[in-house]
Write a structure and sequence with these properties.
single chain, about 0% strand, signal, LysE family translocator
Length: about 200
């Protein structure tokens, strides 16, 4: 692909991915509440999910996405349900662990599934790849090599954007040392994740 086309795609994706939405809200809330060490399965799922949407657009599978609309609606509501569950867990999470006791963490597999459900069920992401992307790139002329270049560009942009959000949330977490501050952070995170779930649920 032409370098200019890749740069235009990167710039559009940077703006779309950098603007706070349900996925970013869930990511930031998770880091503030639990720290950054266990968030990478969630991140990996977000990136793979966006890769799936990119592939759908490039290989002309927008028709398939519309044909199997019910399946994508199910994925969307699974994501909403899991985000609501995470919000409840954060709202009720203890702010202090007893001696020799650590707060229970979600398994990497559960976090991966949550990230995948949030990404595949997020209409903002779907509309970027299936509706906006064709206006930026001539998808009819994209070869397998071009798809690989777009995928690599997507991965670099998303890594830069999402890791910046993780770093910012991690720095904010360091300021929250007291039980009262942690309780407030947990509840703000819970409210943010609940808002992300509501945003996904409200979008058609």
């Amino acid at each position: 692909m032409h370098l200019a086309s890749l740069l235009i795609f990167a710039a559009a994706l940077f703006v779309a991915a950098g603007s706070p939405g349900p996925s970013v809200a869930a990511l930031v809330a998770r880091v503030i509440s639990k720290g950054f060490r266990d968030v990478f399965p969630f991140l990996a799922a977000m990136w793979i999910g966006e890769g799936i949407w990119l592939s759908c657009a490039v290989f002309g599978l927008a028709v398939v996405a519309q044909t199997f609309h019910v399946a994508f609606v199910i994925v969307k509501w699974v994501g909403v349900g899991y985000l609501a569950y995470l919000a409840w867990k954060m709202w009720t999470a203890p702010v202090e662990a007893g001696e020799g006791e650590m707060p229970r963490e979600d398994s990497p597999f559960k976090l991966f599934l949550a990230g995948m459900a949030v990404t595949l069920g997020n209409p903002k992401i779907m509309m970027f790849y299936l509706a906006l992307l064709p206006t930026i790139i001539d998808l009819a002329s994209v070869t397998v090599t071009g798809w690989a270049e777009l995928t690599l560009t997507m991965a670099v942009v998303l890594a830069c954007v999402d890791l910046t959000w993780v770093l910012a949330a991690s720095q904010a977490r360091k300021l929250l040392k007291s039980p009262r501050a942690m309780r407030l952070a947990n509840r703000l995170s819970a409210a943010t994740i609940a808002g992300a779930a509501a945003a996904i649920a409200a979008r058609s």
